[in-house]
Every structure is written in C-alpha cells, then in structure tokens.
Amino acid sequence: MTYDELKSKLELIIDPGFNKPFKDVNGIKKLVVGPTGVAELEIYLKDKTKNEQQVKIQIIRLVKIELGFPGIKIDFFESEFVPEGEKIIKYLAVASGKGGVGKSTVAANIAKAMQRQGKKVGIIDADIYGASIPYVLQLEVKPLKSTADEKMIPLSKDGIEVISTEFFMPPEKPVMWRGPMLGKLLTHFFNGVQWQEDIDLIVIDLPPGTGDVALDVKSYVPLSKVIVVTTPHPNASSVAVKAGLGAQQIGHEVIGVVENMSYYLNTCNNKREYIFGQGGGEKVAKKLGTSLLGQVPIGHPTSGDYLFTGTEEAGKTYDEIALKLMKELDL
Ligand SMILES: Nc1ncnc2c1ncn2[C@@H]1O[C@H](COP(=O)(O)OP(=O)(O)OP(=O)(O)O)[C@@H](O)[C@H]1O
Ligand SMILES: [Mg+2]
C-alpha cells in the first residue's frame, strides 16, 4: 500500500455534511505516515459535531482494518469549504468588556441598518446571562416551530430573524447554564437553525466579557468577525480592550469598534455634549489595531421602541456603521 493509494482511498470517503467526497471539498488537509507506519490525518467536516463520530469509524475501519496500518491519529476541524454557487453566510459577533454598554441595542440596530441596505439579516442572541434581543426588537416570544429535518425556525420581527437563549428559559426561573448544557444549546444555534433563504448576515450578541461563548463561536463559525462596543469614558474603555484582545487571542478578527452613548445632541443649539467623557472608542480602536466605526449618540428612537429609523441622528450613524461593515465583511 503506497502513500498515494492510501490518499486516493481516503479521498473517496464522503463528508455527510456536504454529501460529497473529501476530494471535492478539500476535506483532508494533512496526511502523513510516520516511520512506524502510524497515519496522521487532519479532517475538515462541514458538520463536525454531527458527523465526526461516524466519519472517524469509517476512516479507522479503512486505514487499520482494510489497509492494515498499525496506528492512526485523526484530528477533526470545522470545514471552511464553500461549494461553488453557494452563498456564504457572514457572521458578525458583537462583544463588550462589561454589561450595560448597549451591546444588544447596538447589535439590533446594526441588523436593522443592514436591512435598510437591502441585506437579509438574522440575530443569534447568545447572551446567556441576559438575553435582551427579543426585548430590544419588541419581539413576541412564541413556541418555535421546526422543519421536517428538525431544524428550528427562528422567530422574526419585520424580517429580522432571531434565535435567542430567552426562547429556552423556563419563565421566571433562573437557569444555571453550565458548560455542557451551554455548549449543546449553542450547537443548536449554529447548526440547527433554518434561516431564511439567501440570508446575508447573522449578528451574534455575545455575553459581556471574554468567555466560553466567544470560544464556542470560534469553533462553530471560524470565520466570524468581531466588533467591540464601548462607552466613551477612557476608564470604561480598558475593559473593552480586554474583551477585544481576548477575541483576537482566540483568533477572531476584530474589524472595528462602536462607541455608544458618545454624546448628547442638544437640540437647542445643535451642539454635542459629551456627558460621559470622550475618547474611549478611539482609544479602544487604536489598542486593538482597528478603526472606530461610529459614535452613537445618547437617546431613544422617537417611535418609542429601540430601533432607530434612517432619518434619525442615531439611525444615520448606524447606517454609516453598516456601510463600513459591509465593506469589511465583503457583503
Ligand atoms: N445610545 C443610547 N442612549 C441611551 N440609552 C441607551 C443607548 N444605548 C443603550 N441604551 C440603554 O442602555 C441600557 C443597556 O443597553 P443594552 O441592553 O443594549 O446593553 P447591553 O450591553 O446589551 O447590556 P447587558 O449587559 O445587560 O446585555 C438599555 O436600557 C438601553 O435602552
Ligand atoms: Mg445585552
């Protein structure tokens, strides 16, 4: 059995996620046979969580039993392969150092601004400590329906689709999310949702800080980009820097900073009043080697909910942020 024969046999194995052989989907990135005859492989699967075990058994059977190699070592990864003609869904995770800086409000308003630009958008509310996207969107929470192949159908508010930890919480009972439970839920969020056809962007509202969830996002959607939300006070910004550095350490690309509650626009003289200080956003952007995407003023939408329209001051800021992000995300 030569190396080439081994390789060509392995390449015929099907990645069930794509329903195509590894050869066609670049599923084998490393294949070495050591001096003792042990084969080492790196396998990239479309749906690692679902199919790893099954593919592993298949490979071991082929390599050890059929071909008689004395040993095998396989590492599995999430595939980044995109079949020709298939649209790639872009992901944008919204992070912050601490809570209450307006992360969820910013995430929802960016989604809305993207929609104004003609994009199809969804939101994953992954903030296990305080899911607030349904509230920010004023979304009526109803039991979720699912498709024939058991994918969850997200709820939708004016075309923005949402999947939220909130949908899985028993009412008025705090739930302690522990590692395995949380991981299971997130797996469903990233692999088990039937989003609208041709969806362009999924915005992820992360929990504050640098935690497990950011790490999970990295394993489920390795190409997700991150933005960091901060308030304008320079002291508040150091914790936002930490969150950004944390994301970068995991390997996420931080593509910008949004400064929220930047100023109050005094309508009497049309002057900006910097109630919460100044310079935080710029500082965070600089420390993270990225740019300040925009400064959102203090205030609520005139409509009485939490989403600005494109004609309001904050709405215009969100539109500018959305345009910059579209460029960064290649949308
Ligand atoms: N630019 C703003 N001007 C005035 N109020 C704002 C602004 N942005 C957010 N808020 C308000 O601040 C509060 C916190 O906002 P939000 O829930 O979006 O923050 P968060 O960072 O997601 O918080 P949490 O850590 O609780 O998830 C909300 O009441 C929200 O309406
Ligand atoms: Mg929030």
Describe the structure.
It contains 10 helices and 17 strands. It has 331 residues and is of the alpha/beta class. The protein folds into 2 domains: 3-78, Alpha-Beta Plaits, CATH 3.30.70; 90-329, Rossmann fold (3-Layer(aba) Sandwich), CATH 3.40.50.300. Strands 10-11-7-12-6-13-14-17 form an 8-stranded mixed β-sheet, with helices on both faces. The chain has a 3-stranded mixed β-sheet with strand order 3-4-5, with helices on one face. Strands 1-2 form a two-stranded antiparallel sheet. The longest helix has 19 residues, at 48-66. The chain is elongated, with a radius of gyration of 23 Å. The termini are far apart. The protein binds adenosine-5'-triphosphate (ATP) and magnesium ion (MG). Magnesium ion (MG) binds next to α4.
State the gist of this model:
With 331 residues, the protein is an alpha/beta fold. It is built from ten helices and 17 strands. It folds into two domains: 3-78, Alpha-Beta Plaits; 90-329, P-loop containing nucleotide triphosphate hydrolases (Rossmann fold), CATH 3.40.50.
Topology:
Blueprint: H1 3-10, E1 14-15, E2 20-21, H2 22-25, E3 28-33, E4 38-45, H3 48-66, E5 71-78, E6 90-96, H4 103-116, E7 121-125, H5 133-136, E8 145-146, E9 152-153, E10 155-157, E11 160-164, H6 179-191, E12 201-205, H7 212-220, E13 225-230, H8 234-250, E14 253-260, E15 264-266, E16 271-273, H9 280-287, E17 292-296, H10 313-329
Parallel strand pairs: 4-5, 6-12, 6-13, 7-11, 7-12, 13-14, 14-17
Antiparallel strand pairs: 1-2, 3-4, 8-9, 10-11, 15-16
This protein binds adenosine-5'-triphosphate (ATP) and magnesium ion.
Adenosine-5'-triphosphate (ATP) binds at residues 96, 99-105, 127, 130, 132, 208, 260-261, 296, 298-300, 306.
